[in-house]
Description:
Elements: H1 2-10, H2 14-23, E1 28-29, H3 30-37, H4 41-53, E2 57-62, E3 65-70, H5 77-86, H6 94-102, H7 108-113
Antiparallel strand pairs: 1-3, 2-3
Amino acid sequence: MRQFVRVMKALSDPSRVKILKMLGVKEFCVCELRELLGLAQPTVSKHLKILEDAGLVTYRKEGVWIIYRLTDGNDTVYSEAMLAHLQTWLDDDPIIQEMISRLPQINRERSCAA
């Protein structure tokens, strides 16, 4: 039950759901997610840590950047099921559509220099 509750709590915040939807499109560093969400870097990092602890995201180092992506969902049946559903859920949400429309303007070097 502990892992189920952890996944559900991770998904209970709109910003974390937005992060997951964006990571469903491509990988991002914290700075890029900060720019997309309009949140402070420490806030985005805190959200990412909660998502990581729930088994929903993972990361890798790429030079000076830490790049986040969705997990393969195999950590638990709960993370796997929720990530599978999130692939299609909220695709018609205006906020998600607006964020996706801004993706071509997001530039890692510019975002991280700001």
